[in-house]
């Protein structure tokens, strides 16, 4: 073999050993599509494509935020409560890209599909005829690049729940007791089904060709499964003892089980319940009481997520956060805190939940022990935090969206700097480079011995 061969081999091995162990292959920060409330059927809104976490950042809007921010590609989309303002930001830099306005409140996520954003609007006030939503109600489609309004479809009742995109159609549940199917290109009505119940904030959940949604009046409260392939209802389950909450809770679905919560009793003595139903039949598999407490004004019933076979949910009635086994309904642990309404988010064995006093807690998903916490400003949005590439995003009623790297939730110990890599990571990197140097020394020694023998 020639000298050049050994030189090339030596240089190649040297470069490969000194390259970083993790290769960044992400083309953009967020997912390519965001087709329903909190991204997934289990409502655990986590996405990771290997992009670096963001540093702490604030995105300022015009008014209160009560919806979950949506991240698609390098854009973040979010709307405002009272004013109906709609925003797009560069999620990496914080730059505002555009601003538009809906005709009424925005509690809906601004879901994203194929260059378009879809957002519902409307308010919670009732008309004389019992329809929920006064003023203009409906759903808008906007160009994701420019913010230009593409079309608006008006409904008789509010569209406070987040729309869902499913197989070239947009579905919306409304305060006028109907489920609408719209053409995403034109806004044309494709199908209209009568639910028979008012849907307040129960964002439809689409899992495996079925749409799940909770409704309220007229009594009794009902929960529905809708077959999207045939555009017909699959089953409905009555909740005769429920007086509030079922129509406000976006259900979570995993492992053939749909989970929701609701209140029984009355406003003087409300009891908060957690329900698990069979996805095929609607049969209630089990129900567990979270307890009784003070009635709250809005968002009376906490929203669950499902993560690693467990249900995580906060109760605004009992001011406690819970973990339950999905299959058995056994309570695993609880954590008393302040009023919490929002769905949490979980990653790497840690579950993050927010309360109405501006705090985000990180709890060990197995034990409920506090792993860290972070104080933000304002009453945090009832739609809860999401995690994209180890960065937690959450909206606040102080008009801001906050981005916080998960490393900020590391529990500080005396003398520990939480902004740097962990000790184990540092040790791993050190060992890698030491091994690389040793290999280079051995190769160099072999090369020089070979050259001396040739001489």
Give the structural class: mainly beta
- Average pLDDT confidence is 88
Shape: globular
Major β-sheet strand ordering: 1-32-33-34-2
* Strand fraction: 35-45%
- Low-pLDDT parts are 1-25, 412-434
**Termini gap:** 14 Å
Descriptive terms for the model:
single chain; 455 residues; 5-stranded mixed beta sheet; 5-stranded antiparallel beta sheet; 34 strands; 39% strand; disordered N terminus
Description:
- This protein is mostly beta strands and 455 residues long.
- It has two helices and 34 strands.
- It is globular and about 70 Å long.
- The relative contact order is 0.12.
Write the layout of secondary structure elements.
Layout (H helix, E strand, L loop, with lengths): L2 H16 L27 E2 L9 E4 L9 E3 L2 E5 L5 E6 L5 E6 L9 E3 L2 E6 L15 E7 L5 E7 L8 E3 L2 E5 L4 E5 L6 E6 L10 E3 L2 E6 L5 E7 L4 E8 L2 E3 L7 E3 L2 E8 L6 E8 L5 E9 L12 E3 L2 E6 L4 E6 L5 E6 L8 E3 L2 E5 L4 E6 L5 E6 L10 E3 L2 E5 L4 E6 L17 H32 L1
Parallel strand pairs: 1-32
Antiparallel strand pairs: 2-34, 3-4, 4-5, 5-6, 7-8, 8-9, 9-10, 11-12, 12-13, 13-14, 15-16, 16-17, 17-18, 19-21, 20-21, 21-22, 22-23, 24-25, 25-26, 26-27, 28-29, 29-30, 30-31, 32-33, 33-34
Helix pairs in contact: 1-2
């Amino acid at each position: 073999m020639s000298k050049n061969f050994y030189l090339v081999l030596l240089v190649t091995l040297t470069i490969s050993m000194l390259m970083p162990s993790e290769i960044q292959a992400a083309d953009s920060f967020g997912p390519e599509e965001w087709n329903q409330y909190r991204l997934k059927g289990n409502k655990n809104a986590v996405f990771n494509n290997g992009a670096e976490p963001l540093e702490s950042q604030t995105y300022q809007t015009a008014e209160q935020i009560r919806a979950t921010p949506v991240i698609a590609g390098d854009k973040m989309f979010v709307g405002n409560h009272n004013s109906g303002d709609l925003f797009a930001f560069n999620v990496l830099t914080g730059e505002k890209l555009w601003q538009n306005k809906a005709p009424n409140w925005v509690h809906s996520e601004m879901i994203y599909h194929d260059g378009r954003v879809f957002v519902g609007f409307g308010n919670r006030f009732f008309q004389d005829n019992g329809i929920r939503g006064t003023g203009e109600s409906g759903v808008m489609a906007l160009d994701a690049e420019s913010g230009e309004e593409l079309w608006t479809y008006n409904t008789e009742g509010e569209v406070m729940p987040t729309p869902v995109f499913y197989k070239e159609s947009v579905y919306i549940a409304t305060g006028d007791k109907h489920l609408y199917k719209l053409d995403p290109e034109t806004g044309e009505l494709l199908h209209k089904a009568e639910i028979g119940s008012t849907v307040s904030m129960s964002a439809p959940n689409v899992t495996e060709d079925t749409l799940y949604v909770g409704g309220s009046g007229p009594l009794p409260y009902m929960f529905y499964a809708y077959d999207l392939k045939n555009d017909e209802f699959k089953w409905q389950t009555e909740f005769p003892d429920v007086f509030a909450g079922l129509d406000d809770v976006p259900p979570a679905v995993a492992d053939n089980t749909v989970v929701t919560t609701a209140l029984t009793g009355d406003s003087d003595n409300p009891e908060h319940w957690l329900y698990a139903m069979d996805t095929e039949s609607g049969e209630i598999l089990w129900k567990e009481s979270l307890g009784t407490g003070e009635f709250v004004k809005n968002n009376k019933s906490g929203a669950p997520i499902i993560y690693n076979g467990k249900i995580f949910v906060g109760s605004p009635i009992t001011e406690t956060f819970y973990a339950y086994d999905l299959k058995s309904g056994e309570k695993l642990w609880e954590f008393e805190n302040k009023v919490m309404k929002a769905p949490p988010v979980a990653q790497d064995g840690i579950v993050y939940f927010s309360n109405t006093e501006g705090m985000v807690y990180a709890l060990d998903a197995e034990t409920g022990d506090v792993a860290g916490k972070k104080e933000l400003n304002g009453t945090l949005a009832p739609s809860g935090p999401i995690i994209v590439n180890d960065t937690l995003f959450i909206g606040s009623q102080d008009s801001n969206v906050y981005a916080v790297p998960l490393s900020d939730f590391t529990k500080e110990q005396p003398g520990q700097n939480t902004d740097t890599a962990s000790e184990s990571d540092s040790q791993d990197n050190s060992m890698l480079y030491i091994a690389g140097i040793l290999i280079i020394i051995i190769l160099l020694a072999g090369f020089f011995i070979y050259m001396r023998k040739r001489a």
